[in-house]
Design brief:
6% helix; extended; two-stranded antiparallel sheet; four-stranded antiparallel β-sheet
């Protein structure tokens, strides 16, 4: 199988209306760089009296990754809806195009996160599709001193 050139790989997302139901990923979040990979949970099995494991067993497998890039107001609602719960935009005043995205981070209790279908790859070689994806962990944002 041919290796894909990372310069040609793009990631698209689709907003799932029902969590876990895959949809067409038709939105490219151009402010973010997605680095993904398969993460297995493996149990090593060693017989008693042996120094080294004799075999291994894969218990489950999932996709995980990192998200880096410049934060902007066009892409921020995707992350916040996934971490804080679904945020629905409201019309800004009399405007028909401007929207207000007002979200409140939950202090206690549970939320219903917005989930996404992710498609990543290159059309000429291969790709990967994941549904029920969401942003789970936030490590803070930083801004370089020269910006």
């Amino acid at each position: 199988m041919a290796n894909r050139a990372t310069i040609n790989v793009k990631t698209q997302v689709g907003v799932e209306s029902i969590a876990g139901t895959a949809v067409a990923a038709n939105k490219v979040l151009q402010a973010f760089d997605f680095k993904t990979g398969i993460k297995p949970a493996i149990t090593m099995i060693a017989a008693s009296g042996r120094k080294y494991p004799a075999s291994q067993e894969e218990n489950k497998e999932w996709m995980a990754g990192t998200l880096t890039g410049s934060m902007d107001f066009n892409h921020l609602p995707y992350l916040l809806s996934s971490a804080w719960g679904i945020i629905t935009p409201a019309a800004h005043g009399a405007s028909t195009t401007a929207k207000d995205w007002i979200g409140t981070p939950p202090v206690t209790g549970s939320v219903t996160p917005q989930t996404y279908t992710f498609e990543q790859g290159e059309t000429a070689t291969r790709g990967l599709r994941v549904h029920q994806g969401r942003h789970q962990r936030h490590r803070g944002y930083h801004r370089a001193a020269n910006q």
